[in-house]
Every structure is written in C-alpha cells, then in structure tokens.
Amino acid sequence: MSAIEIEGLEKSYKTGFFGNKLKQGLKPLTLSVEEGEVFGCLGPNGAGKTTTLKLLLGLVFPTGGTARILGRELGDIEAKRSIGFLPEQPYFYDHLTPLELLDYYAKLSGVDSRERKSKVERALARVGMSDSGRTQLRKFSKGMLQRVGIAQAIVHDPKLVLLDEPMSGLDPIGRREVRDLVQELNEEGNTVFFSTHILSDAETLCDRVAVLNKGELKGVGVVADLLREVSGDAEVVWRGAQAIPELSALGAHCHATGDVVRARLPERLLETALEALRKSQARLTSVTPVQATLEDYFLARIGDDKPKEVNA
Amino acid sequence: MMGRLAAIAFNTYREAVRDRVLYNLILFALLIVGSSVLFGQISLEINRIVLINLGLTAISLFGVVIAIFIGIGLVSKEIEKKTLYTVLAARPVRRWEFLTGKFLGLVLTLTVNALLMSVGFFAAVMYVSHGLGRGDLQLVTAIYFILLEFVLITALALLFSTFSTPIFSSIFAFSIFAVGTFAEDLRGFAQMAHGSTRWAMTGVAYLVPNFAALNVISQVAHDTVVAPKLILLNTLYVLVYTGAVLTASVWIFERRNLK
User: Fold this and answer.
1) A228 touches B: beta carbon within 8 Å
2) Residues B244, A267: Cα–Cα separation, whole Å
3) Which three-class secondary structure string do you get for chain A?
4) Domain A2-228 has what CATH class?
5) Rounded distance between C-alpha atoms, residue A10 and residue B258, angstroms
6) Among A214, B38, B145, B147, which one has the highest count of C-beta atoms within 10 angstroms of its own C-beta?
7) pTM
C-alpha cells in the first residue's frame, strides 16, 4: 500500500493589493510514496516542497486534486495519529522544557499516560538530548531546537515521518546523526518523506526522489535510475604540459597541474578523444568513468531555471 | 477530545503564568488596591466606598488589559512563530479544539489572577471595615460580573486574533471594550433617532457587547443590592454572546490557510 498518494494536487494563492492575481504555488502534482520507503523531495527555495507538505498536513487547502495519507483522505484527522512532522526552522513554546514539550505533544497524539514518560525519554535519548531535558527551550541553540523538533516528530511512534529540511542549521556531526536516525526509522519499517535542498543527503538516504522547481514536478524515480538518465562523463589523464587543442575543440574541460593534464568529457566522445591523444603521442595515464551525481541530474533538470541555492 | 482540550488549555495557562509581564500587571493592580486604602483615609466617611470603587475597577481594568494583551496573540502569535504547525499538522487536533482550548486556558489564567487580586482586595476591605459582613456578598457578585466581562473580552480578542495582526487586534478589542462600556447610552441615543436611522442605530447598539450591564461596582460600593434576575440574565447574555463569538472565530479559523 502507498503511504502517500497524490493525484493532481495543486495550490494557487491570491496575490496583489486586491487579491485579483493568482500565483501558482504548486502546479498539479501526481506522485506516490510507498510504505517503508525513504522519499526525498528536492528543489531550490520556492520550488513548492513546503507547500506540498502543508497541503498533505491540512495546514493549507488545495485548489485542486486529491491526496490520501496512510489510506485516508486528506483532512481525515485520524490519519494524524500515525504521522510525525518536523517543520522547517522549528520554533516551539519556549517557556517549556523538552520533557514538558514532548509530554504535551504525546498527550495531544493520544499516547497512553502509562507509556508517555518512557516514550518521551526514549525520543529525547534518540536525538542525544537526554541531559538537556529540564532546560527551558528559550536557552537552546538552533541545532538543539532542531533535535527537539525531530524528537517531537517521533515521540508517538508514527508510521509516516514528514521532515521539512531536517538538516538545516545542523553542524556536520548533527547532520550525520540525523541521517543515522532516518536510516534507523526506515529500518524499523517506517516511511520517511523529507524535503531538502542538500543533494548529498538525499543521495545518501533516499530510495526515491522527486525534483520540484517553481511548483512543478521535474522528475521522480529511484536515484540510480535517475542518474542513468544524465549521461556520464569520463576523465582522461595524460602526461604533458598543456591541453591538446583537439580535445578542447570537443568541449572537454582540460586542467593542467605540473606535468599532468586532466580532461573531463562526455563518454560518447571518449573514442575520438583517445584517438586525438594517440595522434599527438601523448603518454596516457588513466581513463576513468565519472559517476553522475544527483547534483548533475538536478542541474540537468532545472539548469535552465537557474536555481538560486543549491548545495552539493 | 476532552483530554486534548484540557492539554491545550493547561499549556496556554502555563505559558501565561510563566510570563513575567503578567506578574508586573498583577502587582500593579494590587498596589492600586493597597493605595485605595490610603485614598480612603483622606476621604472622611467614604473610605469604604473609595476602596471598593478603586479596588474593583483596578481588578476589572487590569484583567481586561491582560485578556486583550494575551488574547490577541493566542492565534496570531502561534501562526507567526509557527508553533501551531506541530499541533495542528501532525496531531489529531481539530482546529475548533485548538481555539476552544486556547480560550479556556486564558479564561483559567484570568480567573486565577482575579482570585489572587480579590484576596488582596478583601484583605483591604477587612482592614477598612474591621471585618467582613453579610453585605459584602455583593462584592462577590461584582467580582463574578468582572469574571463574565473577562470571558467576553477574551472571546472577542480571540476572534480578532484569528484574522488580524496583534496590533490591529488590540485596537479592535480595546475599541469594542470602550464602546461596549457605553452600550446602555448607545441604546438610549438610538431611541432618540427617527426612521431607518433609529432601526440601524438600535441594531448596532444591541450588537455591541453590553459591558455596561456587567459593571455593578458603583452599585455595590453604595450597598445597593444586585437583583438575582440580573445575575441570571448577565450569565445567560455572556454565555450566548461568547458562544456566538467563538463560533465566528472557529468559522474563520477553519477556513484559513496557515501559510
């Protein structure tokens, strides 16, 4: 069964002084997320990732289309018992301590009072916050708040966890811990849907990804399949002092360091390039296929739209 | 459902009582109650009247300020800080439950505050009157009406909070409180008008919340008995008016996109 089924979901906002203009926040979107999957929603800022999440969670209302979460129609309050959500740049009731906050959320999620204390403590332990449970949240750094945010998303043992930019504001160690936690949740059989513009995280974690830009779905699929879509490059290395004009003419990016020259070019031009090297009697050192990355796919799909913020 | 309502109400109460501004306001109100004893001493023979008038007015006004000050932020602050995302997005909490819980939480806060201030007030009355008599039960009625006033103004502040910014909400809430304080006069003016103007003015005068009917401070200060019928009518009036205002708040909030 699909954990999330989206069919033609769209959202337009009224803009302008008199609200007479329409801005499409999300163009009709159709995709599904299978149970037990780690699914990444990628795109630059303003791509429609957060809008998609807010539509799924009933924070904003769609102007078209439908969606089902865990087999229930959009807006069915019962589905929310099994959903965990981390908003982007979370901000919590700062007069509370993490223990109080998580207890409050667990209560709202309907966690039995006998289990509540142990679940709260377990969630805090999972994000490495056991020692800070009794400190008021107003004294926390951004990274610590992000951890509390993740703890509140998992305190009631949800089947589906939706994370909006979960790595945002975290240092490399924190990012690593979140990645481990996502993998752990997945190993326990949970579905994780997260939005990010940090492509390396998506590449490491996701079974499948969807790429959004300007409110439109640009591509969706298994990461390895998507990477196959963007043609791979090859790197040719030879001994010499400078680039060979024939290779530059082929469009290869040449770079000389000392007496070694490296050239990167599409694999389909490899034979021609090697022939040119042979003719110029260059001493070939190596030929290596360059693995395409999600960033290559991302740029290929939305390259024309010039994304503003893309971190590799 | 009751568990969720209670949890939201208690969290609202806890948030309010952990705010230092609240204590400053309560302290200020108690200082005014205390100072009314001094004012009474320089007003020969009428020290009790001055104390009751000043003391109850302080409890009422500071309560209204707290109700508006916290009430206008009940929803808008949660949207601005995005704290309600984690409540409404991924918890089985309906929007009307969230609003009602917030409302009940603030009413609980105001009731506790009013009781604390009333303790100070009765201590001052005991000091001036050398004890409490049966007639002082009227003071309890006046305080009950002040609590009804808090319920009504909280509902109105919450209503404005569902569609407006805190600044505009506070302007609306204070304005409607000021107009409602003169509701009886408005009704009188309406009777003096003619034709369609009279109908329109009467309509407006009856739509405005009647805070004037909830103010019996001067009456009890002069030991005039408050009619039991007024207690019943005021209770019913506040219940119906608050119900209507809360329904309107829910209607607006249920349709709002939480961007």
Assistant:
1) no
2) 72
3) CEEEEEEEEEEEEEECCCCCEEEEEEEEEEEEEECCCEEEEECCCCCCHHHHHHHHCCCCCCCEEEEEECCEECCCHHHHHHEEEECCCCCCCCCCCHHHHHHHHHHHCCCCHHHHHHHHHHHHHHCCCHHHCCCCHHHCCHHHHHHHHHHHHHCCCCCEEEEECCCCCCCHHHHHHHHHHHHHHHHCCCEEEEEECEHHHHHHHCCEEEEEECCEEEEEEEHHHHHHHCCCEEEEEEECCCCCHHHHHCCCEEEEECCEEEEEEEHHHHHHHHHHHHHCCCEEEEEEEECCCHHHHHHHHHHHHCCCCCEC
4) alpha beta
5) 16
6) B145
7) 0.84
In angstroms, the separation between the Cα of residue A253 and the nearest Cα of chain B is 45
Residue A287 and residue A247: Cα distance in Å, rounded?
A: 14
ipTM: 0.86
Find the residue in A nearest to B4 (Cα): A108
Cβ of A77 and B258 within 8 Å?
no
Tens place of pLDDT per residue across chain B (259 aa) = 788 999 999 999 998 888 777 777 778 777 877 787 777 677 666 788 888 998 999 999 989 999 998 899 888 888 888 888 889 988 999 999 999 999 999 999 999 989 988 988 898 888 888 878 777 889 999 999 999 999 999 999 999 999 988 899 999 999 999 999 998 888 888 888 888 888 888 888 889 999 999 999 988 888 888 899 999 999 999 999 999 999 999 999 999 988 7
- Tell me which residue of B199, B106, B193 sits closest to B157, measured CA to CA: B106
The region that residue B3 occupies, defined by phi over 0 for left and psi between -120 and 50 for alpha, beta otherwise, is alpha
Q: Do A92 and B83 touch (CB under 8 A)?
A: yes
Helix (H, G, I), strand (E, B) or coil at B15: helix
* Contact in structure between B205 and B183 (CB atoms under 8 Å): yes
- Using the Cβ of A91 and the Cβ atoms of chain B, whether some distance falls under 8 Å is answered with yes
Q: How many distinct helices (H) and strands (E) make up chain B?
A: 12, 0
A88 to chain B: nearest residue by CA? B82
Q: Which CATH number fits domain A233-290: 2.30.29, 3.30.70, 1.20.1260, 1.10.3470?
A: 3.30.70
Domain boundaries along the sequence of chain A: 2-228, 233-290
